[in-house]
Design goal:
With 219 residues, the protein is an alpha+beta fold. Helices cover 40% and strands 20% of the residues. It has a five-stranded mixed beta sheet with strand order 5-4-6-3-7. Strands 1-8-2-9 form a four-stranded antiparallel beta sheet.
């Protein structure tokens, strides 16, 4: 879901250049990986880099077809108009987490990394009763906007376009969680040559501005 908007923009740009329509279905990463693993007839899959590697290992994505597209950072959000916590340093973020009445993160790579971070800080058991994990495919920012989560963590690209929230900023460099999102040609595809042309475009310099506009950096 973190790449939903940028992929939509790039697919439209590719269609204008090539005349070929690209139909992208955006779902949570866990669901996407499961469906490709089950052999559903997709031509291309976009997931976190490690998830693509697993699909290559299982033979569901063609070896050698993987293309890294973007690097995506995690940011922090609060409900619009709420006080903005200090997140300038690792210590400040830890205090903000400990003081928050509820903490939200996703089922994706950033959520896994945050769980490990809370464990390293020694506060996992302290904050566990206040953690709200967004269901797959549901942006954490939506829970923040509805007041169900006081402090939300998710990819900046998923937070920056939502109404009802204020993005406090990216996590500081010392604890930044950067996910590389990649693409791969599905083994069941009968349009391999065209998928490779699409991925060549999405990985090119021509796509860099759109990636940055959606809060990501070209890979």
């Amino acid at each position: 879901m973190a790449t939903r908007l940028v992929l939509g923009e790039l697919a439209e740009a590719y269609a204008q250049l090539s005349g070929s329509e690209v139909d992208i279905e955006s779902v949570g990463g866990v669901d996407a990986a499961r469906r490709v693993e089950a052999g559903e007839p997709f031509d291309v899959v976009f997931l976190a880099s490690g998830a693509i590697d697993k699909l290559v290992s299982s033979g569901r994505v063609v070896a050698g077809s993987k293309v890294d597209l973007v690097h995506s950072d995690v940011a922090v959000a609060v409900r619009a108009g709420s006080p903005r916590p200090d997140i300038a340093s690792e210590d400040a973020v830890r205090r903000a987490v400990q003081e928050a009445t509820s903490i939200g993160y996703s089922t994706g790579p950033s959520g896994v990394a945050l769980t490990k971070l809370f464990g390293r800080w020694g506060i996992a058991s302290e904050v566990q009763p206040r953690i709200v994990q967004a269901p797959p495919g549901v942006p954490v920012g939506e829970l923040v906007a509805r007041g169900e989560v006081a402090l939300g963590f998710q990819q900046l690209s998923e937070l920056m376009h939502l109404d009802g929230i204020d993005v406090v900023g990216r996590l500081p460099a010392a604890i930044q969680i950067t996910t590389t999102f990649s693409a791969g040609l599905c083994a069941v595809s009968t349009h391999g040559a065209e998928v490779r042309r699409l991925l060549d475009f999405m990985g090119s310099r021509a796509a860099a501005e759109a990636k940055r506009r959606h809060g990501m950096e070209p890979a």
